[in-house]
Amino acid sequence: MFTWANGKPNTVTNQNGNTFYYVTNYRGDVVGIVDENGATVANYSYDPWGKVLSVSENAAVTGQPIGYAGYYYDRETKLYYLQARYYDPETARFISRDPDPGDKDDPITQNAYTYADDNPVMLVDPDGNRGLTTLYRTVAGALTYVIVSGAVAKSLVKKAVGKVAKKVLRKGKGKASKYVDVTKSGSRYANRETDVSKAQFEKKLLRDGWRKSISKDGKTIILTKDGAKYVLRDGAKSTGGSTADFYPKGSKRMTLKIRLK
Length: 261
Hints:
261 residues, 2 domains, 6-stranded antiparallel β-sheet, 21 strands, 38% strand
């Protein structure tokens, strides 16, 4: 028997009625299992696509099936069950088509077999249907840890917004701005709504050392620092207002849209 908490594996109870606690990373991978005293009874590791690299299990939890991203893993076929389809980590592809044709303006979503838009570090597919969940849901990202101490298992989510977000999302002396999660189900990136204006956002980033450039058509402002990038624009198609799109270092895909005032 299994239980879940905050969308991630929480406990597993074996045939003898003993309950154990899952230890998961930011993506929801089961990386370990501990007993009620905090003693480790299993360890697991995976590559970014979910291929199992190592398994070490105590007899009490041998064969338990929950693994990469919290998916059910069939050890005989070596496939993950994602409700709508089966996923093969060896090929990093689903074994059947996605019925959703994808977005016309986003070619990668039109591939019916790709997993997580070929970006498993930043995205996870919750159920095998089109519709991805962004793993990093703040300006600098969000990390999820599971801490187990004694007989208590606690889940701690640390919002690692970093210095940039803390400075940008402030208005005046000690007054924090509005910063609300408005991400819709199935969105490929996180959405946040704030009452910081485009001018305020740009000004504070420049003060923090970001470099500014303008697109060739003059319609967008591009701010870069240490490989990361913000793209500021007016009249965004999705909101009609001003937005700031965030691209992490080394990524060509945005992971966050901030809706500015």
